[in-house]
Design brief:
Keywords: Electron transport, Heme, Iron, Metal-binding, Periplasm, Signal, Transferase, Transport
Protein name: SoxAX cytochrome complex subunit A
CATH superfamily: Cytochrome c-like domain
Number of strands: 7
Number of helices: 11
Number of domains: 1
Structural class: mainly alpha
Bound molecules: heme C
Subcellular location: Periplasm
Shape: globular
Distance between the termini: 26 Å
EC number: 2.8.5.2
Family: Belongs to the SoxA family.
Length: 279
């Protein structure tokens, strides 16, 4: 698969070094007379041609996936992400989806929590603790998500609305996308339903069109050069809800799954190319 990057290995140190160089570049950004964000991003991508630091997250996530853990001391290798127990290849490209055993539509992060509870015996609180890393505090969830998402690299997004539950969750996501509120009376659609719109030099994708939804959806999770961390789609949506001045949803909430379902379905047919790299 041409999109499949080389597996992490001896090159990790080189990656870490280029990541540090790229981070230094970002730090220097405000003082440089500069082109558009897209041009800057093209430069980081060139610098990081040797490898995306997200590969470190993927490798750590694979280890976590295979390592016995929790009160039951079993690995996640028997977790069913929708394509059968233990199948990771291509699973992310078909999520969110309806899971009969849970009786609901789940996105990757809800499903991971489900497996950590049912297979490993963790409590829900333990399985959903620390979903977003902060300085000095890494997140197992971000690592697991990076690994599973990477297992769909090169695969076309193929989210189906084949059950009534999936149709309902998609319709809910659509409703939330257009729902205006908060101090600014913004909806997702205010910023993301128009072609060619920009905010502070950042291009805002039109998430209603296949091309915009694909470009956005197929590139998360992403290593954020400005933050030195891999961020998940869940985190991206948090950040947008915050910009919208909406209340912060609970981690793994059905609101996020509904929005993810809406975006993923709109991105169907796009080739998954994450974890990617973003400013
Ligand atoms: C006030 C404007 C604003 C609102 C409202 C908003 N966003 Fe965003 N969104 C942004 C900005 C700014 C970015 C970052 C663009 C960049 O960095 O290139 C972004 C990025 C995104 C991305 C990633 C795009 C990519 O290509 O990486 C997604 C997906 C997204 N928003 C979804 C949503 C959803 C869903 C909602 C509603 C819950 C929403 N946004 C509400 C401003 C907004």
């Amino acid at each position: 698969m041409q999109n499949h990057r080389r597996r992490p290995g001896a090159a990790l140190l080189a990656i870490a070094a280029t990541a540090a160089a790229a981070a230094a570049m970002v730090a220097a950004l405000p003082v440089q007379a500069q082109g558009s964000t897209a041009e800057e991003l093209a430069k980081y991508r060139q610098m990081l041609a040797e490898g995306n630091p997200a590969e470190l997250w993927e490798a750590a996530g694979e280890e976590l996936w295979k390592k016995p853990a929790g009160p039951k001391n079993v690995s996640l290798e028997q977790c069913d992400l929708g394509k059968g127990p233990g199948v990771t290849k291509g699973a992310y490209a078909e999520l969110p989806r309806y899971f009969k055993d849970a009786g609901k539509v789940m996105d990757l992060e809800q499903r991971l929590a489900w497996c950590r509870v049912t297979l490993q015996g963790l409590t829900r609180a333990q399985a959903t603790a620390n979903p977003f890393s902060s300085p000095g505090k890494s997140s197992d969830i971000e690592r697991l998500v990076s690994f599973i998402a990477g297992e769909s690299r090169g695969v076309k997004i193929n989210v189906q609305l084949s059950t009534p539950e999936e149709k309902k969750v998609y319709a809910l996501g659509q409703k939330i996308f257009f729902y205006r509120g908060g101090a600014y009376d913004f909806a997702c659609a205010t910023c993301h339903a128009v072609d060619g719109q920009r905010i502070r030099l950042q291009d805002l994708p039109n998430l209603l069109h296949a091309s915009g939804a694909q470009a956005a959806y197929t590139t998360w999770p992403a290593y954020r050069v400005s933050q030195g961390e891999v961020r998940t789609m869940q985190h991206r949506l948090y950040d947008c809800l915050r910009q919208q001045r909406f209340p912060e949803p609970d981690y793994g909430s059905d609101v996020i799954t509904a929005l993810t379902m809406f975006l993923a379905k709109n991105a169907n047919g796009g080739t998954y190319d994450g974890p990617n790299l973003k400013r």
